[in-house]
Amino acid sequence: MGEFVFYNGKKLRKGYTTGSCATAAASAAAYFLFHDKAYEEIKIELPNKEKIMIPIHSIEVKKDGCQAFVVKDGGDDVDATDGMLIGVEVTRNTTNQLIIEGGVGIGRVTEIGLQLPVGEAAINSVPRKMIERSVRKIIGSNIGARITVFAPEGEEIAKQTMNRRLGIQGGISILGTTGIVTPMSEEGWKQSISLELEMKKSQGYNSVILCPGNYGETFALKTLKLNETRIVSMSNFVGYVLKEIQRLKFEKVLMVGHLGKLIKVSAGIFSTHSRDADARAEILVANLALLGMPVTQLQQIEQCLTTEAAGEIIAQAGYEAVYQIIAQKVKKRSEGLLKYRKPEPSIEVVLFSSQRGCLASTKSLELLKEEWK
Question: Is residue 29 within 8 Å of residue 61, measured between CB atoms?
Fold first, then answer.
């Protein structure tokens, strides 16, 4: 396995998932309990059959079994779980079954729509299979064991993850489809959003509110008083999420976002991270020019670093009508992205500013509040 990946010209170190950590800890505990062998590092097999070595932080003998700990190493990826302890306690079982369960700091599923039933510990299927396969190789097929995965800091760290949105309460999830964390990979993030959308669809929702981030979500909840259960954060992946909306056959979408994000969509930019595209000033200038704004003011807009700063000039010059034009273009571009496949969800848009509040909406705010409350 390659230990590094190159991203934007930088050499970044790969890491391993919470699932790989739990597998290594379970293996170390099983070796000590059943064979009286203590290892400083454990070789585990990934789902693709490659093997990696993971350091063991510590092993502790307990009255009824053995505990082992691994420090989660996400490599150079930004990860809330990076550096936390993942522990596994292995005890003997009176049958020949392997029982895998979650202990302190491991979340519990509280809503339908995930791969796991309500009430089950949030240990996904791939990590479960990795743990079972690894422990079986150590103890054989005729002996049983109870394997309890836990995380001492899990409940607190889970507040920094998407678990709450997914209906997972009380701790972190044990995740990983490959066993490896690839730095700056967007795929895991996109998969989490897809999972949230699939969960809402399975719960009977046919409409969803999309927000680019925390600002949009806060505005939707605090100012518009919209229904929190319908809100999904799409981050910068506007195009990806809209296509997922279509794949899952949602009927209606309400996009609520800061002008600085959604203005990019009005120009057909569906990946809104600044590293991909940052044409906010240019898009504003083009639309204001079509409304007749004088060149001197257009030049001032072009020099603005934020849409908030540009808003001061727009307000003083009396060109606030530009916001309604941009909102309509966001709607048109978004619906246009999906027009070649069925079904075609209806899309409405609300634009806001941190300083000025709601700037424009493609339908009356009162109607939207009533419809989406």
Answer: no
What the block records as the tokens of 149 is 């995965």
Residue 47: closest CA among 69, 13, 23, 30? 23
What the block records as the tokens of 355 is: 């300083």
Total number of residues shown for the chain: 373
- In the chain the first and final C-alpha atoms are separated, in Å, by 50
Mind listing the pLDDT tens digit for each residue in 153-185?
A: 999 999 988 888 788 999 999 988 888 877 656
- Report how far residue 330's alpha carbon sits from residue 172's, in angstroms, rounded to the nearest whole number: 36
3 state SS of 351: strand
Please compute the mean of the pLDDT values over residues 178-207 and round it to a whole number. 84
Instruction: For the chain, count helices (H), then strands (E).
Output: 12, 18
C-alpha to C-alpha distance for 54 and 43, rounded to whole angstroms = 6
Backbone φ and ψ for 19, nearest 5 degrees, come out as: -65, -40
Question: Of 315, 305, 301, nearest to 356 (Cα)?
Answer: 315
| pTM of structure | 0.73
CB atoms within 10 A of CB 62: 12
Which amino acid is present at 257?
G
CA 305 to chain centre: 28
Give the residue among 246, 255, 256, 161 at the shortest CA–CA distance from 201: 246
SS3 128: helix
Instruction: Name the 3-class secondary structure at 29.
Output: helix
Question: What are the residues whose beta carbons fall under 8 Å from the beta carbon of 209, sequence distance 6 or more?
Answer: 220, 226, 227, 230, 231, 232, 253, 254, 255, 256, 372
Token digits of residue 214:
């925390």
All structural domains of the chain with their residue ranges = 4-181, 192-372
What does the angle CA 78 – CA 80 – CA 85 come to, to the nearest 5 degrees?
120
For domain 4-181, the CATH superfamily is: CbiD-like (3.30.2110.10)
> Helix, strand or coil for residue 230?
helix
Residues in a beta bridge with 85 = 71
Percent helix, strand, coil in the chain, to 5, is 40, 25, 40
- Report pLDDT digits (tens) over 295-342: 999 999 999 888 999 999 999 999 999 999 999 999 999 999 999 889
Q: How far apart (Å, rounded) are the C-alpha atoms in residues 310 and 287?
A: 13
